[in-house]
User: Which sequence fits this backbone?
């Protein structure tokens, strides 16, 4: 018997569709239903590796966790990973397919639609409910003829839709009423109801707002949901970083007794979920006078382009000055590659630049390859700390001379490098392990500052 679909659409981007999808997934799971998430097409450089090795958006992996199941590539059959110069890498059914610009992408619409419907069909055979997340606004009029992910998909699956609006950003009346006004005759019957998300303070203050919206739309409001700033879902993209209110770094370190940490926010930053245990870290995009104990170079989808950006902004010299003054450096994936003395891209897999000198903090050389390594692993640090992690990269890094590894994998393979004040690794998720985090940064993680994911899913439900 086919699953019952429920479609979660939005009045715009970043209104909380992923949050509502995860909350509904957890709600149904706790009621005893078999439930799975689905997002046909996702654009994100925050990705996760499924047990079978395929790659999907990080938000869909988190939603699968909320359902109590393992993530699968059918939950996100198309993942677009922006690379900069060449457009986006298209990850199809978990594996890199081609790198395309926007116009070329739309020319493959029929092919992609077939793949999306096939993936949904496989999920539908296994579960009672499939909770489908849309992308951006459900009324992107200029993209209606190429709609793989919003009401065009909902219409094909006859999936009833809940519309999500974010009151925290303002303009909620215009966004809700305007969205219903723009629905065409085939779409309007699908959008059955709406909800107001991210309300701060006393919800009775909006008691008059609900009947006004119900009158003007002719649809019922499912509720006014609170802004929960202590519940977090792994974000899809770097838009969520714009909502951070970075504290003065000195004040943050005094509050928690932690070291001062900065994270370089690359233009093509990826998998910054690695740093969920660092809520007080400061993201930097330009040189600052503040001195840091540790500076992290995160993953990136376009390593050479972001390395050149680092130089153009003056951050390369800033890093060297910080290091001279005593800072430690940690590079993860693309950030690890930058710490070496050379990066080459002979096949132009990420950019038009074939080679660039690295930052020179490590005696390492990286060559980007056509094939991508995606896998979940278990590793241990040289001190014996065992932790789960995952790899998503297209490069091979060669170390020069004798070095101490960052970690040893279960098969005996060594990953990365450790020196006195420079660390490099390909292992995403290592810093999400509290013991590894504390070993590297030299301070304890405040349990109260980052609630567990399971507790967060239950609170959302």
Assistant:
């Amino acid at each position: 018997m086919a699953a019952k679909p429920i479609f979660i659409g939005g009045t715009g981007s970043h209104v909380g569709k992923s949050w509502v999808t995860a909350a509904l997934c957890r709600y149904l799971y706790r009621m005893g239903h078999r439930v799975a998430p689905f997002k046909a097409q996702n654009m994100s450089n925050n990705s996760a590796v499924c047990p079978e090795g395929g790659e999907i958006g990080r938000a869909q992996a988190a939603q699968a966790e909320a359902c109590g199941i393992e993530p699968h590539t059918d939950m996100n059959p198309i993942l677009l990973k922006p690379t900069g110069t060449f457009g986006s890498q298209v990850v199809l059914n978990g594996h890199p397919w081609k790198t395309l610009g926007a116009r070329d992408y739309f020319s493959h619409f029929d092919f992609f639609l077939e793949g999306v419907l096939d993936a949904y069909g496989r999920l539908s055979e296994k579960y009672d409910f499939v909770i489908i997340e849309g992308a951006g606004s459900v009324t992107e009029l200029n993209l209606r003829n190429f709609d793989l992910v919003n009401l065009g998909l909902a219409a094909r699956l006859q999936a009833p839709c809940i519309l999500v609006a974010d009151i925290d950003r303002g303009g909620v009346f215009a966004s809700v009423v305007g969205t219903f006004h723009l629905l065409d005759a085939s779409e309007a019957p699908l959008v059955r109801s709406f909800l107001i998300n991210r309300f701060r303070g006393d919800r009775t203050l909006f008691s008059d707002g609900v009947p006004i919206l119900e009158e003007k739309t002719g649809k019922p409001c499912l509720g006014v949901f609170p802004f929960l700033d202590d519940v977090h879902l792994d974000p899809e993209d770097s838009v969520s970083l714009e909502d951070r209110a970075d504290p003065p770094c000195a004040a943050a370190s005094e509050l928690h007794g932690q070291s001062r940490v900065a994270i370089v926010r690359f233009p093509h930053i990826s998998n910054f979920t690695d740093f969920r245990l660092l809520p007080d870290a400061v993201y930097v995009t330009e040189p600052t006078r503040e001195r840091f104990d540790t500076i992290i170079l995160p993953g990136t989808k376009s390593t050479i382009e972001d390395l050149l950006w680092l130089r153009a902004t003056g951050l390369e010299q800033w890093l060297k000055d910080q290091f001279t003054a005593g800072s430690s450096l940690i590079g993860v994936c693309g950030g690890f590659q930058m710490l070496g003395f050379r990066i080459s891209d002979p096949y132009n897999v990420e950019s038009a630049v074939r080679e660039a000198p690295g930052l020179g903090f490590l005696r390492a050389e990286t060559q980007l390859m056509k094939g991508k390594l995606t896998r979940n692993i278990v590793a241990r640090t040289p001190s014996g700390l065992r932790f789960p992690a995952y790899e998503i990269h297209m490069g091979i890094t060669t170390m020069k001379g004798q070095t101490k590894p960052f970690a040893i994998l279960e098969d005996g393979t060594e990953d990365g490098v450790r020196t006195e004040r420079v660390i490099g690794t390909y292992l995403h998720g290592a810093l999400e392990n509290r013991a590894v985090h504390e070993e590297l940064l030299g301070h304890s993680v405040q349990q109260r500052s980052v609630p567990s994911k399971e507790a967060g899913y239950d609170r959302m439900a």
